[in-house]
Fold this protein.
Amino acid sequence: MISVEDWAEIRRLHRAEQMPIRAIARHLGISKNTVKRALATDRPPVYQRPLKGSAVDAVEPAIRELLKQTPTMPATVIAERIGWERGLTILKERVRELRPAYLPVDPVSRTVYQPGELAQCDLWFPPADIPLGYGQSGRPPVLVIVSGYSRVITARMLPSRQTGDLIDGHWRLLTAWGAVPKMLVWDNEAGVGKGRLTSEFAAFAGLLAVKVHLCRPRDPEAKGLVERANGYLETSFLPGRTFTGPDDFNAQLAAWLKIANRRQHRIIGTRPVDRWEADRAEMLPIPPVAPPNWWPSRTRLGRDHYVRVDTNDYSVHPRAIGRTVTVRGDTEEITVTCGDDMVARHARCWARHQSITDPEHAAAARTLRGEVIHQQAARAATARSAVLAPDSLGIEVEQRELGAYDRMFTLIEGGGGKEDT
């Protein structure tokens, strides 16, 4: 058998140089029949080793019969059933070749999203330490939402992964979109629900009039759009950036997303912003009621005049002590009302285990304590004067004549003798 190089040279000499077969054979030192075979085919010669029989050939009918009955039967079970005593490698290779003929055809379907159909949601924990104030730093979660049809990404850092913060984060991101997808896809996040939505998130879904689909556990492929978006944020947004705090993180992220949503998307073959208007046109309108006001907490304010939200304590004006107050919180501020009276308003603290005091509340508390101390001192002085001069208080006191005291002392000194008359 000639080599590929000889085959190519024979064809070149015969066609380009017009050299006869005999001359080519003499020039290359090969036979004329070899030259003729080389010129008879347009394909280069390929060495093929003659097939030899395999030890599996004898048991192939038995393998086929087992696969016919159970197409998914493992090769190790097949080896046991047919009494195979040789190496498993050649048996597994033959089973791998034969199995597709007995398995049902299962083509993979391409997922196609319709405009306004759904958005996938997830929490991304950026590997970067964010200053949170009071000397603390941390890695708060970032809520990421990706629209299925347009692939538009929106995201925002949240103080925590609790239900209230997740609802407020959804509300702010969807309000910025100006529309709500007909379905939100979530994995089993505790603040959303595990197998079943939490009562708060179910109420939020009812407010938006959307369906919330919870994926099966350990099934990241079910929301691959947002999983890839998380990786994109980590590799394209985060590197080389520094942040002064959560607000700075959100500002930089919002500016970067405007650019990222204008990139050419490889899968859809266009830019997400070019699909966005058609996507948003099929979404639902934003409801007029802000959901965070649905879940206020009520408590009776004690003498300490602080309320706790998450792990932090926030001061309240002491005029509300002893009365029932309503505490409302979102990702940006904490408010406390007593009836229609606003008795506290604080920026949300992202650090943990802190006491946040309004100077006005502290000054009012000092004033009230001074008044209480003054009143207590006045009552104490009044009580002392009543002891020293009880008649000044209008209390009648029995008055004895002075002779009674002389007679009393005379009896004591005389040893109990009779009194003189």
